[in-house]
Amino acid sequence: MNATRERPEIRFLTSGDVTAHERGAAERAVRDALAGAQHVTSVKVTLSVVADPSLPRPALAQAVVDLDGRRVRAQAAARRIDEAIDMLRERLAIRTYALRTG
């Protein structure tokens, strides 16, 4: 993939009560986390909210990225989906940075 080419489209899988706003926040978070990464060939994001108040962390955000032929995966669970997305951003940024700097 040419480094000047746009990033691949992010494929989403959602379940539960996930809004378009939250999906947009997840897209921005993943793109921020991948800033500076080259050779990203695919990105898949899963957002899930389970409607069960008894669960301590019913919201899940997960990303699987193909970065220079290697699969990078990060996920976070939280009480709310926006919290999970913020944690996902941090974890994905750390993993991709570690892979790039090697």
Automatic annotation (TrEMBL):
Protein name: HPF/RaiA family ribosome-associated protein
Lineage: superkingdom: Bacteria
SUPFAM superfamilies the record matches: Ribosome binding protein Y (YfiA homologue) (SSF69754)
